[in-house]
Known about the structure:
Blueprint: H1 8-23, H2 26-34, H3 49-55, H4 59-67, H5 82-88, H6 92-100, H7 112-118, H8 122-129
Helix pairs in contact: 1-3, 2-4, 3-4, 3-5, 4-6, 5-6, 5-7, 6-8, 7-8
Amino acid sequence: MSGEPIDPGVIELAGQVFDLARSGATEDLAAYVDAGVPVNLTNDKGDTLLVLAAYHSHPETVGALLDCGADHSRVNDRGQTALAAAVFRQSADTVSRLLAAGADPDAGGPSARATATFFELPEMSALLDAPR
């Protein structure tokens, strides 16, 4: 980086975009991505838009981000993937969408599979183990 401070307007816009992912505002978020916001934009904790949408149980938003090219294999600063976040939140729709896109149940640390086991989530384990 150049060492220059980031424009406060850019920081504000990024905050708004992350809020759209958290709230599941699929159409608005997709419009920002279409306008040039990076689909793999990452916050200060390493969370991507996809991780946030998955953690907050927004399968439609997850699907739209995947359609825009979001990388489901990215991990946040704690080693968590969007799939592990969706498993933790027990969002079957979100888990199914991520698996259909090729997300690896054993990626990250803790992985989605380890998350399902640790929190004793048999329904999530069954989804992860189902043949694809």
